[in-house]
Write a structure and sequence with these properties.
By secondary structure, the chain is of the alpha+beta class. It has 31 helices and 27 strands. The strands form five sheets. A seven-stranded mixed beta sheet has the order 23-24-22-25-21-26-27, sandwiched between helices. The chain has a six-stranded mixed beta sheet with strand order 4-5-9-6-8-7, sandwiched between helices. The longest helix has 20 residues. The chain is globular. One of its GO terms (biological process) is proteolysis. Keywords: Hydrolase, Protease, Signal.
Length: 943
């Protein structure tokens, strides 16, 4: 991916459903997804052009959007020996410009058109390029995608290659080398797969291999794999099939086919003896990983092992969570997965230990659970829980246009059938307790696994690979073409008639006890999301009890007066519902998502935990241990440390937002049931709460549920105390350094106080920030990443709260360019403050906010989150539906005023978490004193 951490095994496991589907009714569920009452199907049309290019059309008129999802059927499985990471590097190069679209212009065009979800990703078996555009930009999207596939190679030269090698190597530093347990995950695959196997080096590859790629290699890879006969485009959304067919033929039909791609035939390795590996890393908590080779995706046993993963580690109701986290309190977390891929899958168990706990003891308990599962079939209830969860996850993936398109492309390549959903359901229909036991017994033996124990210690990295000086200009003869010159492609297509911008309108009503209820009707798939939001966040913490709001929220899931923690977990699992409670800066949210058929029962559980928490002393002790471990764990992650220290630097000693949301060790140890109960009694009240619900539910149905479940919630006699925000007392230091010896990158947070959500020019501030650092195409990210190759990505953001605001620029850069990167950052800030944006830039960044709005409200969860935020921030009921008008009114003058008033260089505090010996001289050279050294908890060590 271009802006997110790259997963080591990104291929999702097959999704499926249950033997019966009581939540479904016969007939259409939404525009493209239909049911006959027992199975699902995606209404589609698949075409193959004369050159072999595949197109799958999914006409769906729910929203005025079209998702473009282009899969090139090449990944690490197609890499030559000594060229690990090549497929992923090529993904980056695909965004480096084409014959008809200059470098960087495609992303700017997508922004200006109101695109969302624009990115690329690489997994073992394919590379994916995707974005979603407003429906009137169908031709524009096809123009961009066809030029990327057919004419990228015309423009790739040594300059572009060198730049993207820098970017990808920065991504490796960030996602593997400077991330806790990154080297551990790599060690797992190196132990599982022999030298030369395409999965051994995971997706990201090695520094040496990435740097060794030559321009000739890039051209050869394009000739072999980036041809129309090795690619599939899925279009999903609001278009007419006849128009789409005509335009697909126009833009893709003349691309020249390549030679047939030979099949990749690699034998799946077999382990006949256990392999044990010890790894040390800069981490606080030990971690145990167990991994096995399992059947390839959609082969016999794959679905059974999916079910095994849910039974063993699918949330709080799973066997290993109950044993290791809840009962024995040996583990901080448990994750189990069946990561399915074409050349063979990997079944993995990952357990993060609590401080001081034995990995050997944890391993012994896992072995006992595996022995139990391989000798005795799981219960019918366990099997049904897994099926219900998988069904819910499938519906959630079909809710969003972009993920529906990706699911169909996945099925098309991996199963050979774009409408494999029904057959996928059949796989799970065939699973029985006996087949689950047999699959576990056959594949999860001790002699067929890799065991990796990771413990705190020095991080061992491969020898440093130098970054050579980047060429400043392409050499003569570097360009070549795969397709004929077609001058008409130089003209960017004009958009069709723009549909009126219409955002989901929420309707508010109030119960007699003061509880606000917000209803957003969103029929379609049988899914509903909800959130109970309370104005009781970090700002409400007593001065001597930082972290209390978060501790209280966490305890809600640990049992009520009517249900134990495990009873609650079991009941949620039976419903296939997710329930989580978290405290933010100024609010607490209890969030629920479930199938419509189970929503009433799920909301009953939400009401129970919110209104009847038990705060059992035994559960408090369990949560205390978990929070102390989490506190230690976050110290190992440099970007997290930078963000936490930045909060302290801006807000100052004694401010509620200066402390981590977890609190500190003293406050966690001092919190008891009485303190939690007092906070809950004073802060959890209906007149300071809102229930927000979006999905397939009517207002009448919601009114009935709200009255039944929340009507008796009593409002205290005393009026709610107004929580006044204490003034921020920012540090006088302008540079704060946190030492992280040996770090390959410096994590940066450049911060200051910021405006409130109620600021009358909030829209102008957000448009201005989009230009500065809020978009991938922003000035800062373009300069530091695309021009200089210093970073994998840098972004800026405003946290605009009800009573407190903050501005920050965040990212990680190579250690040796920390100073130059900061220098460039301040240069870009100065440039934005020096003169108003030109018309083209203003139009692009304003449209990126304005025209993208429909694409930002395309799932129940995001609609609920947005309306919950508006209520918590005290914004007007119609704030969301008025957003189009507010963004449209932003001018160059108002954005320029926002830059001058809301980004003040003299007030910005630089927080740098990196290797002091290498970074300090660079920070001194900036001349932004005073400079102080703090520890990873934000305490002053010295100047």
């Amino acid at each position: 991916m271009r802006f997110k951490l790259l997963a080591l095994a990104a291929v999702c496991a097959g999704l499926g459903g249950v033997s019966t589907l009581p939540a479904l009714a016969a007939g259409p569920l939404l525009g493209a997804v239909v049911s006959d009452g027992s199975s699902l199907s995606v209404r589609h049309e698949k075409l193959k052009l004369a050159n072999g290019f595949e197109v799958i059309l999914i006409e769906d008129h729910r929203l005025p959007l079209v998702a473009f999802n282009l899969w090139v059927h090449a990944g690490p499985r197609n890499e030559a020996r000594g060229q690990t990471g090549f497929a992923h590097l090529f993904e980056h190069l695909m965004f480096a410009g084409t014959k008809h679209i200059p470098r960087g212009a495609a992303d700017r065009i997508v922004d200006a058109a109101g695109g969302t979800d624009s990115n690329g990703s690489t997994n073992f078996d394919r590379t994916n390029y995707y974005f979603t555009l407003p429906a009137n930009q169908l031709e524009l999207g096809l123009w961009i995608k066809s030029d990327m596939l057919g004419y990228m190679i015309d423009e790739v030269d040594s300059v572009a290659l060198a730049n993207q090698q820098d970017v990808v190597r920065n991504e490796r530093r960030q996602s593997v080398e400077n991330r806790p347990y990154g080297v551990v995950e790599e060690a797992i695959y190196q132990a599982l797969f022999p030298e030369g196997h395409p999965y051994r080096a995971v997706v990201i590859g090695s520094h040496a291999d990435i740097q060794s790629i030559q321009l000739a290699d890039v051209k050869a890879f394009a000739r072999s794999y980036y041809r129309p006969n090795n690619a599939t485009l899925v279009l999903a959304g609001d278009f007419k099939a006849a128009d789409a067919k005509r335009l697909v033929q126009k833009y893709f039909g003349t691309l020249q086919a390549g030679e047939p791609v030979p099949p990749v035939v690699v034998a799946q390795p077999r382990l006949t003896a256990e392999r044990r590996v010890q790894v040390t890393d800069h981490v606080e908590l030990p971690r145990l990983n167990l991994a096995w080779h399992t059947p390839a995706i959609y082969q016999s046993g794959d679905a059974d092992l999916d079910v095994v993963s849910h039974i063993l580690g699918g949330g709080k109701a799973s066997r290993l969570y109950k044993k290791l986290v809840y009962e024995r309190q040996l583990a901080q977390s448990v994750q189990v997965s069946q990561d399915s891929a074409s050349l063979g899958s990997v079944f993995g168990i990952e357990v993060l230990a609590r401080p001081g706990k034995s990995l050997d003891e944890i391993e012994a308990l896992i072995d006992a659970e595996l022995t139990e599962l391989t000798t005795r079939p799981p219960s019918a209830e366990e099997l049904q829980r897994a099926r219900t969860t998988i069904q819910t996850q499938l519906f959630a993936r079909m809710e969003k246009m972009g993920t529906l398109a990706d699911l169909v492309n996945h099925y098309n390549q991996m199963a050979g059938d774009p409408d494999f959903i029904g057959k996928d359901l059949a796989r799970y229909q065939a699973v029985t307790p006996d087949t689950v036991r047999a699959a576990a017994a056959r594949y999860l033996g001790r002699n067929a696994r890799v065991v990796v124990q990771a413990t705190p210690g020095p991080k061992v990295l491969a020898a440093e690979v130098a970054t050579p000086p980047a060429p400043t200009a392409a050499a003569k003869g570097e360009r070549e073409a795969l397709n004929a010159n077609e001058p008409w492609r130089k003209q960017q297509p004009k958009p069709g008639k723009a549909p009126a911008l219409s955002l989901p309108a929420g309707k508010r009503f109030t119960l007699a006890n003061g509880l606000t209820v917000v209803h957003v009707a969103k029929p379609g798939l049988p899914l509903i999301s909800a959130a109970l939001v309370l104005r009781a966040g970090q700002m409400n913490n007593p001065a001597d009890q930082p972290g209390l709001a978060g501790f209280t929220a966490a305890m809600l899931q640990e049992g009520s007066k009517t249900r134990s923690a495990q009873q609650l977990a079991d009941q949620l699992a039976n419903l296939g519902a997710s329930l989580q409670a978290t405290a933010g800066r100024e609010d607490t949210r209890i969030e629920l998502s479930s199938l419509k058929a189970n929503f009433g029962q799920g909301l009953t559980l939400l009401a129970d935990v919110a209104l009847n928490p038990a705060f059992s002393p035994a559960e408090v002790e369990r949560q205390r241990s978990a929070r102390l471990a989490a506190l230690a764990q976050q110290r190992a992650d440099a970007p997290t440390v930078a963000s936490l220290v930045a909060n302290r630097a801006v807000q100052g000693e004694g401010h509620p937002l200066a402390m981590p949301a977890l609190g500190d060790e003293a406050s966690i140890k001092a919190t008891d049931s009485a303190a939690l109960s007092r906070f809950w009694q004073s802060q959890y009240r209906p007149d300071q709460a809102a229930l927000v619900v979006a999905g397939d539910i009517t207002e009448a149905e919601l009114r009935t549920l709200a009255e039944q479940l929340f009507g008796a919630w009593q409002r205290p006699a005393a009026a709610a105390a107004v929580q006044a925000a204490p003034p921020a007392r920012s540090t006088q230091a302008r540079v704060v350094l946190v030492d992280k010896p040996g770090a390959p990158q410096t994590a940066l947070a450049v911060v200051s106080a910021g405006p409130l959500a109620s600021h009358p020019e909030a829209a102008s501030i957000k448009v201005m920030n989009a230009a500065l650092g809020g978009l991938f195409t922003s000035r800062i990210n373009t300069q530091l990443r695309e021009v200089k190759g210093y970073t994998y990505g840098v972004y800026s953001a405003y946290a605009m709260g009800r009573s407190s605001g903050q501005f920050g620029i965040y990212g990680s850069v190579r250690t040796e360019v920390t100073g130059p990167a900061l220098g460039d950052m301040f240069t870009e800030i100065a440039g934005l403050r020096a003169k108003p944006m030109g018309a083209a830039e203003l139009s692009r960044v304003r449209n990126a906010q304005l025209l993208s709005l429909p694409g930002l409200f395309d799932t129940n969860r995001v609609v609920v989150s947005s309306y919950a935020s508006d209520w918590a921030l005290g914004l007007a009921q119609d704030h969301i539906v008025k957003l189009p008008g507010q963004y449209a009114a932003v001018t160059a003058a108002s954005a320029f005023k926002a830059a001058q008033q809301q980004v003040k260089p003299a007030e910005l505090i630089v927080v740098a978490v990196g290797d002091k010996a290498k970074v300090l001289p660079q920070l001194d050279a900036l001349g932004r004193g005073p400079l102080e050294t703090w520890d990873d908890e934000g305490k002053l060590i010295g100047p």
